[in-house]
Amino acid sequence: MSGFDSATPRRAEILPLGDCALLVRFGERLDDAANQAALVLADRLAGAGIMGIKEIVPSLVSVLVRYAPEMIGPNRLAGEIALLLGAKAAERQAPIHDIEVRFDGPDVAEVAAALGLGVDDFILRHNAAPLRVLTTGFAPGFVYCGLHEEALVLPRRTSVWPMVPAGSVLFAAGQTAIVATDIPTGWHVIGQTAFRNFRPDADPPTLLRAGDLIRFTSVP
Question: Which of 14, 33, 157, 176 is 20 to 30 A removed from 201 (C-alpha atoms)?
Answer without folding.
Answer: 176
